[in-house]
Design goal:
Length: about 350
């Protein structure tokens, strides 16, 4: 009886050692048979009661040998099968397949418009001056000859920083004029592109944040005629050689005399009709001769120097350039909208 069980065990050990599970299903059957909760070694271990005392130790060792053999086989086959799987996966990898496309961004229509304007002025010797968006009262208003009681200072128009009566989000790019004139000597010939903020109701035509390009030219004998010629040159470069301009008398605290400039786009296309409200004329900028008080505020001798300045809105020009209907779409960052303007200028 005892030798029979020993023989049985030895047969099982041989089986285990010669077993060659070829895939994961075979391996699982192997595991269930020799290592599972109802494995075939279990009932055999129970037979120990029928083994004479002097043989029990050998019997125990043999049972352990069988268990270890099963565990070792299971582990080694598992490793072999999983590396074979890896190899199979690797052999299926097609190195010539095209890769995942990397999404390319595109320039924002506002940036495209601004860059175009910058290039036009750079060609005639203007240099870009960029400044802070958080300004103080002095540069934004006082230096620019905007009196204390001017409506532009009203809390309704200006975003002041929390708990501050002097720090604000610039309401125009004109404070860059003051920043430049207090730190450089004439001749000065700069353009200042950037973002500005006003507490205005957001609609299809106006927004609480928008962009301007400021221009400033200060030197000896700068005249109104110089300004007109410069702006005509700009309009032709921007809107085409046949464009007409007109200057209408206006008022700005920082210029005297002051004017607003319109360009004639006509009403031939529907978008121009819409944009010019049926008049054909589009107002694009304010301008004028720098008020002597502004020069003096910034430490420039107004007997020796004169200058002209202008400030233009970007959004309206971008609306026309890219045929966009609603100013709000510039700030919504809808990728489907932005993707349309991939031409790099
Ligand atoms: N800063 C003015 C505005 O935001 C625009 C402006 C008008 C700028 C006349 C100028 C200028 O430099 O000379 O409405």
């Amino acid at each position: 009886m005892a030798t029979e069980i020993f023989d049985k065990l030895n047969v099982i050990i041989d089986e285990i050692e010669s077993a060659q599970p070829a895939n994961s299903q075979d391996l699982e059957s192997f595991r269930i048979k020799y290592l599972g909760t109802k494995n075939i070694l279990k009932p055999l271990s129970g037979e120990i009661r029928n083994i004479p005392n002097e043989k029990r130790r050998d019997f125990g060792l043999l049972i352990n040998k069988a268990k270890q053999a099963a565990e070792q086989k299971f582990e080694s086959i598992k490793v072999a099968l999983s590396s074979a799987q890896d190899e199979e996966a690797a052999s299926k990898l097609d190195l010539t397949a095209p890769g995942e496309p990397v999404e390319l961004g595109s320039r924002h229509p506002i940036a495209l418009t601004m860059n175009r304007i910058i290039k036009i002025f750079e060609r005639i010797g203007f240099v870009v001056a960029e400044e802070r968006e958080i300004e103080d009262d002095w540069h934004n208003f006082t230096a620019m000859n905007t009196p204390e009681d001017h409506p532009a200072r009203d809390m309704q128009d200006t975003f002041y920083l929390k708990d501050s009566t002097t720090m604000l989000l610039r309401t125009h790019t004109s404070p860059v004029q003051a920043r430049v004139m207090t730190s450089q000597k004439p001749p000065i010939r700069i353009i200042a592109p950037g973002r500005v903020y006003r507490n205005e109701t957001v609609s299809a035509r106006s927004h609480c944040q928008f962009h301007q390009v400021e221009g400033l030219y200060v030197d000896k004998n700068v005249s109104f005629a110089d300004m007109k010629q410069t702006l005509l040159y700009f309009a032709r470069e921007m809107f085409g050689p046949d464009v007409k301009i007109r200057l209408r008398p206006s008022f700005f605290p920082f210029t005297e005399p002051s004017a607003e400039m319109d360009v004639y786009l006509g009403t031939a296309t529907e978008k121009d009709y819409r944009l010019t409200k049926g008049t054909g004329w589009l107002e694009i900028l304010g301008c004028g001769m720098v008020d002597p008080k502004v020069l003096e505020n910034c430490g420039i001798d107004s007997d020796e120097y004169t200058g002209f300045a202008f400030g233009m809105g970007i959004e309206r020009q971008a609306l026309r350039l890219y045929d966009i209907a609603d100013i709000r779409s510039f700030f919504e960052n809808d990728i489907r909208f932005l993707k349309q303007f991939s031409s790099v200028m």
